[in-house]
Amino acid sequence: MKKLSDKLLDILEQKKILDKVHLKKILNIHKRKGGSIGKILISENVITHKDLMAFLSEQLNIPPIDLSKYTINPDIAKLVPQKLAFQHNLVPVSKIGSTLTIAMSDPTDILAIDDVRAIVSPGIETIDVIIASDNDIKDSLGRLYGSPTEDIAKIISNAETAEVEVLEEEKLDVGEVTAESQKAPIVKVVSLILNEALRGRASDIHIEPCEKNLKVRYRIDGVLHEALSLPKENQNAVLARLKIMSKLDITETRIPQDGRFRIKLGRKEIDFRVSVLPIAFGNKIVLRALDKSNLSIGLDKLGFLPQPLKAFKNALEKPFGMLLLTGPTGSGKSTTLYSIVNKLNTADKNIVTIEDPVEYQVEGITQIQANPEIGLSFANGLKSLLRQSPDIIMVGEIRDFETADIAIKASLTGQLVLSTLHTNNAAGAITRLVDMGVEPFLVAASLILTAAQRLARKICPRCKEKVDIPRSVLERIANNTEIDKLMKRGPFYRGKGCSYCSSTGYFGRMGVLETLTIDDTIRDMVIRKISSAEMEKYAVSKGMMSLRDSALEIFASGLTTLEEVLRITTEE
Length: 572
Description:
19 strands, alpha/beta, 572 residues, 7-stranded mixed beta sheet, 7-stranded antiparallel beta sheet, 24 helices
């Protein structure tokens, strides 16, 4: 193995990928921590998993395999115990006669091969090894065996975590589960889950009971990643701990519950919105992390392009009227609206919001929690808050005709109304209101701007590399004139994946905005019930940047990838 690692280092030196300074650093890390030279090179972003696979395949004459395109028979998986497979990061692929083929990321690990040989059934005489990437093997192991469940004490001992301070927590005593939930290991593991989520920039924490374990996943940059798996016997205590923190009834397991809590971590205070849902194997809990410091950065720091942002700001200078923000769930609509409200929050204005649920609690703003079960719907809440002499009203979402009708009439009587809708583009918001039953002349008179928003993942700055994109690929999303402009703007980039971005190639997100300013021509189109497609066509002719145009501009600037452009925008 030493000779092979030396050979790898020699090749990297010859190709000038590794200089003497970096070589010394790699050797020092290896001396200090041990482990595979290949994995150290990957962690230090010197080479990729793919590069290491190619080298080992060539030197050892072992074929590589793409496990993401290969379906493994579950019966084959039973030939190697789960614990052994996870311990050595290997996966059984096939069995032909008395030969078992296993995929490994490090085929030089003779001890692992010997362990497999010693433990498989007597009918296996030969162990063949093929090479697969580390990530592919982990994904395959997850599909075949599920996640390895660690003892809760081991999880705590292997992690350094600061204790989180729950603010204004009520101490409850409702029996054995509560007592268990307040024991040090449970308190620490919940603190660990919250700590790791915030450290990893997670927007949501999913804690999901499964048949044999309790699975924890984090949503980072809009994508879910599995974090850890807890023993089934600790499930009730962990869930009870979170319910106590959220001031929820821990004895109620049959119906959905909603709560919230606030923690202090260092100098930061983070709100968590909690949703509890009964599922087959217990109560699933989803926590949404709400960091109020994100609201104070202002619209300019959300990543919007100057042109749509200018139209947005111009609309906010109007004393009354309605501004609608559209987009799917998780597209950042709430953050944008709260950033606006936070900016407009001055002593001379009465700002009232009605939401379901209240996401961010902002000082100086009157916030109403809608509760249809007791008759406090969006529509009823709006009627009541209009008697409170508001200057600015924020409605969490327009869901029905009654809410739309009251909100529009409020905007016509001197209030600035901000709200959201679920439509694909800015023009679609106009026709959606008409489809709800609102009179076209009221829509035309009240609207000042509609906007559509998406969130695009940004390329990781630490593993950013140039990439060639053939013209034939660009032809699928743009016309010849646009392609010529894009080619002149190049080069294009992608993230190859590193430890900083958890091998995703992306780090952080930025807003993509489409703004449709309502002018006299649009108002005439609304009254004549012209289609949203025609409205959009007219707006583009007047200089509006569509979502696709905005996303392509960000791509041309080297901030995101073509895959993200295609993911967040629809065909036009």
